[in-house]
Structure formats: C-alpha cells, structure tokens
TrEMBL record:
<protein>
    <submittedName>
        <fullName>Uncharacterized protein</fullName>
    </submittedName>
</protein>
Length: 107
C-alpha cells in the first residue's frame, strides 16, 4: 500500500484493497499505458455512507501484464467502475470508501 493510496482510501475499502494488492503481486504491468477515458458524477447514489459517487472508465487494453501462472503475458482490459467517496467522521478530505466494477469491451 503506497502513501498515495492511503491518503485517498478509508475503512473496509482500504482493507480490501490491501488484500487485493497482495494477491496481485505476480500480475505487474510489463508494457503499455492505461488511459483514464472519463469520469462522471453519479447523482443520487450512495453506498457505505458516501456523499459523492463517481463513474470512472479506464482502458488498459494497450497494456500487457505478467501472468502469475506463467506463460504468455495477459492483455489488459477496459474497466467501468463506480467509486463512492466520504469524509472520515464527516470532516476532512473525501476518501474512497467503497467501489464496484465491471469489465467492459470499451469505454
């Protein structure tokens, strides 16, 4: 977990992210870029006490990732995410407190 991720995450989401990062250790990027295609506000959605919800689409299809099982590298994917943000105890900066995602063909 980097200090940058610690600064923008909180609660159970951070704990889940830490577990995911450990599980993905063998899946590093080998080449290519990621693109943040768009960010949109989702009005009226709330989860885990959030005050803001965003829809974010990233495109990693031009990237190759190490295959943790060995063999040929894995092709990146496009991912559509919903990210929920809240303030710790109602004060301070917004932090990601929950998220959900789906792999998509393109953004």
């Amino acid at each position: 977990m980097t200090t940058e991720l610690e600064a923008v995450t909180a609660g159970p989401y951070r704990e889940t992210l830490e577990q995911l990062l450990v599980a993905m250790r063998g899946n590093q990027r080998l080449s290519g870029d990621s693109s943040l295609v768009w960010v949109r506000r989702l009005i009226g959605l709330e989860r885990s006490g959030s005050v803001v919800a965003l829809n974010v689409c990233t495109d990693d299809r031009q990237a190759l990732f190490a295959n943790p099982a060995g063999g040929e590298p894995l092709q990146g994917r496009a991912v559509d995410r919903r990210v929920y943000l809240a303030r710790a105890d109602g004060v301070g900066p917004l932090r990601i407190v929950d998220s959900e995602f789906a792999r998509v063909e393109s953004c």
